[in-house]
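Researcher: Let's try something more involved. This one mixes different molecule types, so please make sure each is placed in the same coordinate frame as the others.
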Amino acid sequence: MIRCEHLTKVYNGVPAVDDLCLDIPEGEIFGLLGPNGAGKSTTILMVIGLIEPTSGACYIDGTEVATNPIEVKRKIGYMPEDVGFYATLTAEENLEYSAKLYGMDGATRRKRIPDLLSLVGLEGVTKVVGGYSKGMRQRLGIAKALINEPKAVILDEPTANLDPQGVADYRRIIRETAENGTTVLVSSHILSEVSKVCTSAGILSHGKLVASGRWEDLARAGGSGHVIIRVETKAPMPEFSHPSLISAEYADGHRAARLVAETDICDAVAEAAGPAGIRRLERDEPDLEDVFLSYYHEEATS
Amino acid sequence: MRSAGLKVIAGKEFRDHLQSRKFHLIFGVFLVIAVIGLIGGAVEYQKQLDDYNKNLADVSGDEFESHSFFSWKPTILSAFNEMTTLMTTIGVILGIAMGFDLITREKESKSLKILLSHPIYRDEVINGKALGGVAAIALAMGIVLVLSLAVMLLFGIVPNFEETVRMFLFGALSFLLVFSFFAIALFMSTVAKDSGSAIIYTLIIMIVLSSLLPIFTYGSVYTAVFGQPPDPPDTSSMTHYGGYGGMYMTSAVAVDAEGMVSDPEVDEAWQEYEEKSRAYWEQRQAVYDTVSLLSPTNNYQRLAMAVTNPQMAKMMMNSYDPMSADEEIPQDGFSALFALLGDMAKNIAALIITPALFFGLAWVRFMREDVR
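Model: All components are placed in one shared frame. Result:
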């Protein structure tokens, strides 16, 4: 449904997006992950046709974006990170305006707008958008992104300003939307959020897609065989030194440590920490954060 | 195929203008002052009409008096003189207030990205905004005209066909003036990062066009740049000063005991002086006319004068031109009006080109706007 072929965008000689290739099938919830400045928003702006790529191409449902931006915009729903509406209009009036721009007739508008307001929890809110909290604007942004019943929904940092209830509602809406066959592309730097709602993800670093696929594949590939060891002692433990040790973080006055090593060094750790009185020693599986940080570090060091 | 964007955006902008508090306030003040001015004008017109009828009876048969300034038949359109001043102040402010934040407001509220994500062409956004503004200005000018007519009828003054046409022309000119400053403000709205900067830039442009440029045509500034007018020859002379703005004509004679006899040497010096003097003043007039064309306010004032008070406008035009000073004062009628407007074709063109130019610049700037 969403396809990018060697997508590149260069600003003043610096590539913001560098040779990005991506293929997101229909009905998928795809998370575009990356730290700030990785090129996520630039990628999205090219996908929705607001900026033209320096080279390469994007396709939505087989239609090339750069050459058919109007046709593509009819097929997509978009919510930017800094979502904004007309402050002097109500949520209903803002959606009404948006629906008219999509060329929807009056009967469809009258049915669709109350449904969407109810879906995002803004039904019955009569005040103008100028008086909305950021979270309420974000909810309205989701409603706007769905107004034209799009084939693909593209959301840039959708949970940035939502409260816990808003986040839960957002996850429910996105899942329901995907169940109806709509493709969802979510851009975020919050890994936990993307991992909870997305079925697959791509990791952007310095404008390059360093990895993409389903979660379990990413975790397996990103783990790279690193071993995490957690150790707690009664007395302060000495600082460890081992050829396989990659990093060591100490806490609680050197009574707790988290070690990352290339191989299993539990025995060596037990031997070194033994005199301090071991309370706990266990080998831990790397969490998602470790996996994705390893992708960023790999890209940075390469 | 175009989308429905233009119509939808223009409709929203039109409604936004009409519901805007700043539009209500500025236009409200404008209407109040306009009505007061028109009522005063109507009362004054009736008084002038009485004086005119009385004067006409007194000078009947006097050829000179019947063609003099005092013989001009008063017209209700002279009440619009007040309105001309009003347009160049509050009308201009209204145009600026309607245009300065049209694009910056979209940027500030972060709604521009969302707006452009709809299936609409980018030019439909700027065209729609301009169209909505034009419609609101046209409506405002229409209300002013209807109100003017209502005030006249209230005082029992029924304008004839020619006066009605002149009124509509006045309305069209006023529309062009307000639209000029609306277009300037719209351009600044596409250039500036925020509304505060946009209004400051617009006011600077307004001051430059309305006040700073005309300074360069004033006597002291002009002479500092282009030099002093030529000095008359050092002979016995008679010099007559006349007209508006210091244009003067000179003549010289050598006198002997038997009467006025022409001295070839003196005549030649004076002839040379007259030619230099004429060239100097003609150049000065050309500079003034050219610089004035850049000011929408100046163009509007000259054209509004031609429409509402053609005799006065003609007299002011001739004040710089001694050769036509003795031309017959034009009579009322469409031919006189259109002849006068023909003489001011450059001003009409400038008043149309100014908003078109600034709208064109706004269009280009907006089409290249980076929406990152």
